[in-house]
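Annotated sample (chain length 170).
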Amino acid sequence: MASREFRTISPAQAAVVEQHLLEYPVKLGSLAKALDVDIKVSSMGTGLSGQVAREGDRYVIRVNRNEARERQRFTIGHELSHFLLHKDVIDASPNGITDNVLYRSGAPERIEYEANRLAADLVMPMPLVEKKLREDFGGIITEATIESLADSFEVSKAAMEIRLSTFVEA
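Output written by the structure step:
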């Protein structure tokens, strides 16, 4: 089931997003391109993970090149989520939204929680996670299951643990 944040994005954007959530790992670069957002891997200050800002008529996500690939993927999902949910906040600041390693930006906590929940939908779509969990592991969650799923979705083990914390065997 998608987060409430996913259900708040425009129908047109939701249709674009849904087209990219059919296989794992989700191709975040293709999703960003389809949303007309540029991604740049950049050298960022210590403790900074990512940024989304408007540059002229374009939106640009910057992700810290010094972080692990799995971390970069979640950061891209997080910044895409800000783009989908919080354009007004991005547009209100000349520097957009810059997130530190704890995904804190100085914006209200609610905004960061919303971006994290939608990022989980983008990077680890629950229908795909559940399908793989049932088919490959019989729905049983172990440390090995978590590690394998994290590898398949190209996310950290911690991110997958959090995602699976909402899984309920039907």
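Annotation: The longest helix spans residues 69-85.
Annotation: The mean pLDDT is 90.
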